[in-house]
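Input chain follows. Return structure tokens only.
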Amino acid sequence: MKKKIEILSPAKNLIQGMAAINAGADAVYIGAPQFGARSNATNSLEDIEELVKYAHLFKAQVFVVVNTILYDHELEDCKKLIHTLYAIGVDALILQDMAIMEMDLPPIVIHASTQANNRDPKHVKFLKDAGMKRVVLARELNLDQIKDISNETDVELEFFVSGALCVSFSGNCYMSIANGERSANRGSCAQNCRLPYNLVDGTGKTLIANSHLLSIKDLDLTNQLPNLIEAGITSFKIEGRLKDMVYVKNNTSFLRKKLDAFLENNETYQKASSGRTFYNFEAEMDRSFNRGYTDYFVNKRTEKIGSWESPKSQGQLIGKLLEVKANGYVIENSDMLNNGDGLFFLNENNEPDGAQVNIIINNIVVPNTFKALKPGTIIYRNSDANFNRIVEREDSAIRKIGVALKFTETNTGFQLVAIDEDGHESISTFESEKELAKNEDSTIPNIKKNLAKTGNTPFIIDDIEVEFTSNLFLPISKINEIRRVVLEQLIDIRIKEYNRIEIQIKKTNHPYPVSQLDFTYNVSNNLARNFYKRHGVTDIEKAFELQWDPGKSRVMVTKYCVKYELGKCARFQKETMGEKVVEPLILKQGELEYKLKFNCKPCEMEIWEKDAELEFEDED
């Protein structure tokens, strides 16, 4: 049996979830009313139930994120929510808090969120043995590390392939809570990493001023799909539960076409859901929100990945500014631009800026608000008005399920049988006297023509057979009616016969890979503590949110490295780095101040608050 490969798209809400499915997603992930790691992307249970029905029509799945850390007083409400989600047909939960594994759960599938320390074979295998069907791997892993994990366990592996990157190890960023009351692990990240900072060295010298030094480019691994499949990934995840409709449809469509090209005539792998999508636009990822793209570390550390100029969308490269004329610009490739487009550029102060195209006259781009720019300025388009208008239309991506029809006589009338691409069958009959056609021309072509009209239904007719013993006449209204009935029945049959996988979590006691847990394991309640104790953990530190030491805490560990971005890495850039920087390097932004510590052996950077006392080792 072929292995199923899945595209997993974000759903900010019901409408975007349905749009993602129409664009080709095999599954969507969505937030519930509570306990999701995006507090601005919650949804009613009624909307989730409607999305479940729509997804199941195409044999697509719906996963609900319940991936915040939980406090003791929230555990009962969380359990009730999970039982309701199971009752309305949700396929799986995505979680990070192990308290949920201690609850009296319905037989619902559990996935381990990327926040659950999913960075090595031992931890991933532990989660599988605890009953989890899938693990969302850390974004920082390279192909070799993914292969090692895949070889260790047969758990399903999910991996992000496009969208924004969190600069920190997922689940281990505490910048937001340390500088206010907003916890990223509670769904309220303040995005301190996207702020501009000054970089100051150990002598007090400012090396870089007012740059977004922790902001990194967006992820694009769409050219790595075959390599990732070979490494063991079966689900390709698109980040973006806060993104707009154009982003979701564009990224999903782009990935769908890429994956379909790989799966075509493939003897080992197949698509994970039903139907096929027809597009009225050409998907291009750089035409929706992006900060420029990187493959991050999937091929190990090979290039700089910072997006220091701006954390905002830069979009699609247009070209250089050639000349300023009157109140407009002469730009390379200006024929790519349209009225209403948004432009992105760095202004004369090297600050991110933009303008909207008002009109283009004689190749002069006239903005709504003129801004003085130097010739040579690189111009990007971060809002493509025509593209957005097309993609936002409901018919820009239409998904259809293939159906074969067979229309025959019965003793007392006629019968229409519909069998879809998955083998579901719908039958409808009607009684009628059999009337011979008045002319010799066959009526069958006209009958087939009307049977093929599927309109707004989710079906497309791939094959029609009409078997009559003689040349019979039938009113068009009768043909249309029996076609309508048989296809409406088929919708209900597909949803009713959808086979949801169910797994009952059973309490286990196999040993956890480590016996001591620090605050990065985010243990915030007694049930999670019980879970780890039963699995042999002897020392459990409270979650950061419950015990941080203001001003002295480590707020982030990351594979991203400011030294490398500066060209000052003694490990990879020794021949070209020149003079070493004087440590500690410090990030300053208003009253915020962080010290940077570089751990060269694991190739990681730590970020500490300003009052922390650190020891610095010679990286040589």
